[in-house]
Write a structure and sequence with these properties.
- The chain is mostly helical.
- Helices cover 33% and strands 0% of the residues.
- The protein is built from 4 helices and no strands.
- It has helices spanning 2-21, 27-33, 51-55, 60-66.
- It is elongated.
- 8% of the residues are buried.
Length: 119
């Protein structure tokens, strides 16, 4: 009986710790997604979302248009359609939902300033 009580207590404790792991999502995503983690975490809750999950709502061509630099000379610096990767940069390289990225992938070598960067 004592073992059963200990097992039950451990089970309840583990359930409580799962709710503690829940993290905030950004307001602009919360309005669309709500609290359904599986909407984005299509590879499992503890895995990063696939690019396909992001592209269900975000169109890469629209993103490339929105992030096109105004100066024609700088168009190769577009983070969503760039010289190195074209439109194939994995979303998670620059963006994080629960913990915003400090800098985009490009800034590890270049010193661009992306005005609308949200991490």
């Amino acid at each position: 009986m004592k073992t059963l009580k200990i097992m039950l207590a451990l089970a309840l404790l583990s359930l409580a710790s799962l709710s503690v792991q829940a993290t905030e999502i950004r307001d602009y995503h919360k309005d669309v997604i709500g609290n359904d983690c599986k909407t984005c975490h299509d590879n499992g809750i503890k895995q990063f979302p696939s690019d396909e999950a992001c592209l269900q709502c975000h169109d890469v061509d629209d993103l490339a248009k929105q992030t096109m630099p105004a100066n024609e000379e700088d168009k190769w610096q577009n983070p969503h359609n760039n010289l190195h990767y074209g439109k194939d940069v994995p979303c998670q390289e620059c963006h994080g939902e629960h913990t915003p990225k400090k800098q985009p992938l490009c800034n590890s070598c270049h010193t661009f300033k992306f005005e609308g960067y949200k991490g």
